[in-house]
């Protein structure tokens, strides 16, 4: 019996060994900057590779993560396989890529990009997730020229690549991959492939692929094959099938008529794989499947019995949250460290206070400045909500979001540690006479774009679909370069993915920014955030706060004023006087137009954030005419705490700066 089992394992090993994907030679670029052996960065890089190996790649063959604490010792990395590569093959490629690049090709570089035929590995000491990166780049070509009519062949290459890129960019986020075939003659077929890294949005993927395709004519005209490689995307074409054809990734070649005066040319065969035995797929499945299933069932049974015995004899911990959080050791701070960093949470270090606690400035022993959010013991946020905030917000990495650095959970203390943003919040500049002068039009337009991109990430491009519900000037922080960073989106509740809107009896947010359907009926959706964005844009343009705006002869609030100026064809009158001597008329008019589209009373008429980002960055997009905005009765209360409402009447509202996010699992 033992000999039989040994034989089966050996047979399994031989078959799997022969079935592995051969790893191609990496085309690589070692990024500037080196680290020293056994340094903190070296340790964090090893931790990054360990996390990549242990957790990735998942089913979509993409995984990104980070290790260490910014700004000096953090390292960011991702790995992605081509969309046609199997999960097992992808894991094998990951192990080889890490060994090749980190140990052999770029051993002391702080960052590198390595392109294999079947995968890409990328890491850096600078955050790059969700950004379109086109440098470093590489162009590769098949040196053999095509021996048919070159002009129509080149045209077919470009048109087919564009069609392939469009399909890849329109795929679901994380699956930004497509292949396509096109017949040039009856004997010559063109094969194309396009892929983006899984952290890009559909819009950014399309932008990246378009730039890659634009590089094809200069490198690869008249050639049998070519590719352009960017860190964020790549395109490739050949006259032989260089990818695995599956029903989900391939479009068969359309029936075409060969162009005139063309000579049929047989396609180049794919290069053979040395030493690879041709074993029938059916034979492999027939032998391996029963063995694999039997072994799997045996292992699962042993694990189940062992776990049941362990649960029976192990005491139950009182705080299950602590047990779950200890798996995030790289994010965990001890209380003594935070207490020392904030000088025992002294008043002079206090930055602000919200509905769920106080925020302090702190400085760690290594000199790094941090913002510490200490949740009040009587706050509504319990351990489960705190756990959600840490585990979910830690996954959100975008240049226009405030980044979570870690947490502390000891006894009754629940503390969040964020990156420190030196320039405070937008309202500090926008609604201050001296601060306004520091916000010229270029800075304001940059801030508007940054907020829009951050909200697009929350709504559509992150792993979770998040509704902010408290987008306002005081929740927009500005870094040293005046880049906008959205904050206070931590409190989360998971709802069904197919729900377009949700009804709640718990109302949180700020008066003046809340959409009417949310404030009056508790109905919120992504269009509620769009409404808040529209109000915020009008505030940035005017330098006036909506909740305190009052011009008795013209309007009772900022929205009314903007609408009346629009209807009387005087929209530029809303502009902050400090901008009157220097601004772009077209950009200002476009921003006013977009803001009025966002604050329309009918939520279904408000644009999505993806459309807003496109409208802000393209003069060729035609904007629809806005309808009348929603108007509110004036009130002295500006902030709303958790408030119970019914369809008949409002409950009492009290002051609070709390915010809650809604998560749609993807």
What is the chains' assembly state? single chain
Tally of individual domains:
4
Basic shape: globular
Structural class: alpha+beta
* Structural Rg: 28 Å
CATH topology of the largest domain: Transferase(Phosphotransferase), domain 1
* Tally of DSSP β-strands: 24
**Which architecture of the largest domain would the CATH scheme give at its second level?**
Orthogonal Bundle
User: Would you identify the CATH H-level superfamily of the largest domain?
Assistant: Transferase(Phosphotransferase) domain 1
Which regions are unreliable across 5 or more consecutive residues at pLDDT < 50? Answer: 1-23, 255-279, 311-327, 490-505, 632-666
Average pLDDT, rounded to a whole number, is 77
Q: Helix amount, in percent?
A: 25-40%
Count the helices. How many? 18
Q: What percent strand?
A: 15-25%
Tell me the major beta sheet.
Answer: 5 strands, antiparallel
Q: Report, as a whole number of angstroms, the end-to-end distance.
A: 47 Å
Using the coordinates above, name the CATH class of the largest domain.
Answer: Mainly Alpha
Provide the spatial order of strands within the biggest beta sheet.
1-4-5-3-2
């Amino acid at each position: 019996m033992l000999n039989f089992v040994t034989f089966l394992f050996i047979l399994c090993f031989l078959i799997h060994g022969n079935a592995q994907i051969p790893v191609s030679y990496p085309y690589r670029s070692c990024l500037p900057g080196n680290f020293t052996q056994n340094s903190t960065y070296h340790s964090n890089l090893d931790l990054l590779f360990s996390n990549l190996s242990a957790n990735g790649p998942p089913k979509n063959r993409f995984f990104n993560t980070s290790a260490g604490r910014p700004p000096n010792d953090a390292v960011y990395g991702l790995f992605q396989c081509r969309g046609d590569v199997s999960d097992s093959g992808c894991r094998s490629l990951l192990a080889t890529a890490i060994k090749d690049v980190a140990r052999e090709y770029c051993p002391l570089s702080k960052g590198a990009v390595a392109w294999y035929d079947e995968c890409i590995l990328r890491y850096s000491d600078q955050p790059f997730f969700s950004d379109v990166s086109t440098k470093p780049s590489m162009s590769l070509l098949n040196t053999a020229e095509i021996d048919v009519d070159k002009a129509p062949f080149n045209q077919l290459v470009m048109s087919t690549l564009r069609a392939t890129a469009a399909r890849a960019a329109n795929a679901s986020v994380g699956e930004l991959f497509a292949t396509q075939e096109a017949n040039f003659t009856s004997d010559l077929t063109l094969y194309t492939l396009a892929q983006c890294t899984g952290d890009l949005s559909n819009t950014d993927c399309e932008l990246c692929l378009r730039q890659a395709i634009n590089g094809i004519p200069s490198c690869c005209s008249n050639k049998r094959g070519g590719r352009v490689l960017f860190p964020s995307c790549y395109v490739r074409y050949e006259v032989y099938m260089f990818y695995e054809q599956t029903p989900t990734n391939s479009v068969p070649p359309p029936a075409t008529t060969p162009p005139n005066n063309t000579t049929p040319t047989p396609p180049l065969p794919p290069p053979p794989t040395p030493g690879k035995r041709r074993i029938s797929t059916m034979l492999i499945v027939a032998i391996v499947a029963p063995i694999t299933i039997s072994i799997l069932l045996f292992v699962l049974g042993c694990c189940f019995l062992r776990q049941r015995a362990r649960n029976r004899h192990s005491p139950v911990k009182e705080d299950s949250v602590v047990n779950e959080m200890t798996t995030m050791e790289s994010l965990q701070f001890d209380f003594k460290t935070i207490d020392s960093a904030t000088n025992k949470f002294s008043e002079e270090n206090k930055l602000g206070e919200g509905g769920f606690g106080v925020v302090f400035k702190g400085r760690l022993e290594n000199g790094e400045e941090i913002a510490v959010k200490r949740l009040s013991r009587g706050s509504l946020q319990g351990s489960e909500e705190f756990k959600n905030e840490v585990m979910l917000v830690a996954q959100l990495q975008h240049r226009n979001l405030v980044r979570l650095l870690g947490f502390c959970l000891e006894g009754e203390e629940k503390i969040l540690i964020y990156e420190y943003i030196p320039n405070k919040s937008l309202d500090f500049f926008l609604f201050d006479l001296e601060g306004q002068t520091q916000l010229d039009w270029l800075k304001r337009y940059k801030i508007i774009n940054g907020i829009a991109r951050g909200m697009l990430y929350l709504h559509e491009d992150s792993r979770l679909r998040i509704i902010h519900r408290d987008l306002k000037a005081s929740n927009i922080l500005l870094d040293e370069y005046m880049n906008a960073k959205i904050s206070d989106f931590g409190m989360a509740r998971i709802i069904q993915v197919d729900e377009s809107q949700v009804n709640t009896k718990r109302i949180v947010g700020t008066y003046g920014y809340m959409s009417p359907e949310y404030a009056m009926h508790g109905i919120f959706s992504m269009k509620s955030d769009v409404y808040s964005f529209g109000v915020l844009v009008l505030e940035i343009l005017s330098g006036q706060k909506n909740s305190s705006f009052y011009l008795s002869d013209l309007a009772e609030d900022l929205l009314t004023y903007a609408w009346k100026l629009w209807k009387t064809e005087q929209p530029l009158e809303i502009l902050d006087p400090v901008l009157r001597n220097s601004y772009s008329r077209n950009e200002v008019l476009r921003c006013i137009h977009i803001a009025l589209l966002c604050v329309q009373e009918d939520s279904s008429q408000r644009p999505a954030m993806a459309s807003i980002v496109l409208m802000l960055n393209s003069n060729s997009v035609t904007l629809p005419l806005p309808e009348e905005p929603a108007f509110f009765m004036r009130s002295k209360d500006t902030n709303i705490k958790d408030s119970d409402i019914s369809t008949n009447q409002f409950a009492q509202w009290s002051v609070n700066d709390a915010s809650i996010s809604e998560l749609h699992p993807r």
